[in-house]
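== Folding task for one protein ==

=== Format: two labelled lines per protein ===

==== Paired sequence and structure tokens ====
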Amino acid sequence: MSYDFEEVQTYAESHTTPPADPLRRLGEETEATQDAPQMSLGPNEGAFLRFLVTLMKPQRVLEIGVFTGWSSIEIARGLPAGGKLIALDVNEETTAIARRYAEEMGVADRIDYIVGDAGQTIAALEGPPFDLVFIDAWKPDYVDYYEAVLPKLAPDGLILADNTLGALDGNEGIVRFNEHVSADERVESVLVPIRDGLTMIRRV
């Protein structure tokens, strides 16, 4: 193949349904105000996530790592009637941005934002199991998040872990997570090379 990874991503994004105008502006605000704007999901992966949620029709979703809210908004847009997203993040400032754009997109009523330590919050969460879990947070804690949510996953539920191609850049947390999941006989997984990598995990 003569094309490189960035070329693939650019082409994929250009042939994906473009984001709604508020999401475009969210991306611009994130670029202008955040030290690490690349943590935002972006148009191509955001559309993929919403597409998947629309097909799955999950009633209860958990997101670990909100940042400025692109992923939570796209998840909420794909939810069926009565579906709810619990979105966890430690940063009140970026969560406030997420709330603002969720309100503009008309999906704020589908999202329960919780600011605080994700590990402690997950341990305290009660209620029905989660149909979908999206992990996109502090990479050294990925294995801990994974082990915390797996018992809370519905039998036919799905875990999505973002940025899993980070192992190729030597991210030790992601290397450890990828090896942990690959060796876990309780699940099967597939790493999809969309943007920085998205691993899809389900119980067997």
